[in-house]
Automatic annotation (TrEMBL):
Protein name: Argininosuccinate synthase
Organism: Azorhizobium oxalatiphilum
E.C. designation(s): 6.3.4.5
Pathway: Amino-acid biosynthesis; L-arginine biosynthesis; L-arginine from L-ornithine and carbamoyl phosphate: step 2/3
Signal peptide: none
InterPro entries: Arginosuc_syn_C, Arginosuc_syn_N, Arginosuc_synth, Arginosuc_synth_CS, Arginosuc_synth_type_1_subfam, AS_cat/multimer_dom_body, Rossmann-like_a/b/a_fold
Binding positions (L-citrulline): Y91, S96, N127, R131, S182, S191, E267, Y279
Catalysis: reaction(s): L-citrulline + L-aspartate + ATP = 2-(N(omega)-L-arginino)succinate + AMP + diphosphate + H(+)
Domain named Arginosuccinate synthase C-terminal: residues: 181-398
GO BP term, pick one: L-arginine biosynthetic process
Localization in the cell: Cytoplasm
Subunit and partners: Homotetramer.
Occurrences of domain Arginosuccinate synthase-like N-terminal (ranges): 7-170
Family: Belongs to the argininosuccinate synthase family. Type 1 subfamily.
């Protein structure tokens, strides 16, 4: 354990864990601590984090609280949704995509205040430690990283509470008991893991869900909305232009009211173990369906299929923490190029947990009604051309079958 750290920037939520980390850094490394708290749309009041940091001896000029909701959606969520990124076929990467932004802000603050280290509150078993630290090193190769959960001996909640009490760290009454599960949230999603959710055979209790009503309790009448897109990004709902964060928040409200976006998943963590989580991504679930809807009429078949081939690799890079890696940026360039004509409107119906695309239109649509109609017409497609097309494609199949027949 290095002891020559002079100033460290801590990703600070104001909760029990990061408050203990703050004091632990002060007592263990004898260093100056700078806190950074990001408003990612987690739905919590952030001023208490400032007050607690001040109470723990942090100078006002060393407390950074920043509203990054617009940047989060514009520069991280939207680029990811252009790719239709889904990890292991289901997970919309809500936690994963927030980590590179937090890491970037910490490094920016470290440069501003002259800090020589950064720190986070991720445990030694999870993915987040990887995501944070890959981000740090990609942006500042020589930075010192302090990961308390891999260093200290505070290995239980009891030990954390004892440390907090010994160092006069305020603990809310509702935080003294064992938490039934842990929660991470931002404007894109909320994730719940651990304790009551650890056995994948047991259904998650209804109280775990915080961002959606149950589909059974959703209205019996469908909600229909139209989402406008420009170059792959959602820009309007029902004709009203909205900023990225405002639009996603509106979709979250609509998704919540209609029981949309629940996911109970056992996933493969990058560190090698499986974990069970309950995710809620109401707005993101609507956005994904709508984006694929507008792509269906604006993307050429080859481009669309190539995107679908690249998507699992792209999603895995984000999940594993390689947002700032050259290969993710290369894939992003290809994906963004594909979105040049992904402009138009998609109508979706929201009903009891389901999102159904019911209409799509675009000034750049490749859908040609004359080509697909069953009626004869003066169009570029000649039915007789299909015979040669089929025979050419069947040539290798016929050759293989002839060989098999000779071998009998």
């Amino acid at each position: 354990m290095s002891r020559d750290v002079k100033k460290v920037v801590l990703a600070y939520s104001g909760g029990l864990d990061t408050s203990v980390i703050l004091k632990w850094l002060q007592t263990t490394y004898k260093c100056e601590v700078v806190t950074f708290t990001a408003d990612l749309g987690q739905g919590e009041e952030l001023e208490p984090a400032r007050k607690k940091a001040e109470l723990l001896g942090i100078k006002p000029e060393n407390i950074f609280i920043e509203d990054v909701r617009e940047e989060f959606v514009r520069d991280y969520v939207y680029p990811m949704f252009r790719a239709n990124a889904v990890y292991e076929g289901q997970y919309l990467l809500g936690t994963s995509i927030a980590r590179p932004l937090i890491a970037k802000k910490q490094i920016e603050i470290a440069r501003k205040v002259g800090a020589d280290a950064v720190s986070h509150g991720a445990t030694g078993k999870g993915n987040d430690q990887v995501r944070f630290e890959l981000g740090y090193y990609a942006l500042e190769p020589e930075i010192t990283v302090i990961a308390p959960w891999r260093e200290w001996d505070l290995t239980s909640r009891t030990r954390l509470l004892e440390f907090a009490e010994a160092h006069q760290i305020p603990i809310a009454k509702d935080k003294r008991g064992e938490a039934p599960f842990s929660v991470d949230a931002n404007l894109l999603h909320s994730s719940s893991e651990g304790k009551v959710l650890e056995d994948p055979a047991d259904e998650a209790p209804e109280y775990v869900y915080q961002r959606t009503i149950s589909p059974e309790d959703a209205p019996d009448v469908a909600t229909t909305i139209t989402i406008g897109f420009e170059k792959g990004d959602a820009v309007a709902i029902n004709g009203e232009a909205l900023s990225p964060a405002t639009l996603l928040a509106k979709l979250n409200d609509l998704g919540r009211e209609n029981g949309i976006g629940r996911l109970d998943l056992v996933e493969n963590r990058f560190v090698g173990m499986k974990s069970r989580g309950v995710y809620e991504t109401p707005g993101g679930t609507i956005l994904l369906a709508a984006h694929r809807g507008i792509e269906s009429i604006t993307l050429d078949r080859g481009a669309a299929h190539l995107k679908d081939e690249l998507m699992p690799r792209y999603a895995e890079l984000i999940y594993n923490g390689f947002w700032f890696a050259p290969e993710r940026e290369m894939l992003q360039a290809a994906i963004d190029h594909s979105q040049h004509y992904v402009t138009g409107e998609v109508t979706v119906k929201l009903y009891k947990g389901n999102v159904t695309v019911t209409g799509r239109k675009s000034p750049y649509s490749l859908y040609n009604q004359e080509l697909v109609t069953f009626e004869e017409g003066a169009v570029a497609y000649d039915h007789r051309d299909a015979a040669g097309f089929i025979k050419l494609n069947a040539l290798r199949l016929r050759t293989t079958a002839a060989r098999a027949r000779k071998a009998q």
